[in-house]
Amino acid sequence: ASCLNTNLTRPEPAKVVPRRIETSLAVSRPRLWLGLGAASPWDKPHQAMQRELHLEWVLDILLGGASPFFSQHYESALIDAESFGSEIYVDEPFSFCLIGGDTDDPQRLGETLLATLIDSQTPDQIRADVDRARRRAYGELVSSFEDDDSVREFIETAALRSCHPFDLVDLYLETDAEDLIATWDLTIRDREAAWAVVGPHVENRSGD
Hints:
The chain is α+β, with helices and mostly antiparallel strands. It contains seven helices and six strands, in the order E-E-H-H-E-E-H-H-H-H-H-E-E. Strand 3 (85-90) and strand 4 (94-102) form a beta hairpin.
């Protein structure tokens, strides 16, 4: 999913919410979403756009289709290739990412995701895979220019960020592994996750 979110309206004041919500729904398989939040660098629009890009690349490296995580847990059927993925939002005054998908074992998937996201080997993994992530993302960006709606969204997003449209292109070219590691350390590592689980036989409950 694209990391560029054009919905930049000011949110309502934050409310205290439970860290885990489980709800019964008439779906074919249980679904898990983990949410990880952090303060947003809203004082500088360029930094907000940078945060989005960094998070997208970090999650691609750690959990994307080319990652050891995806290969191992797709083969074991813990994750479903069609539904597993992430969404990233950067807004005022917070940023967050949602990660998850359909799974027969939401508890094990959640624990496995959290262990992967805080793995001490993550910096080495990012350094080893940053060039591939850049090529993939840059290729998708260039391909998107062939679609009128994508170009319009690209320009509108830059305008809402008070940036020139090609500032994002510069970010693709200039971002390095250490930038990604710094964002991972700030926004993902050791962050407390919120859990949301829905399924056909899930007991409705919420709490810590």
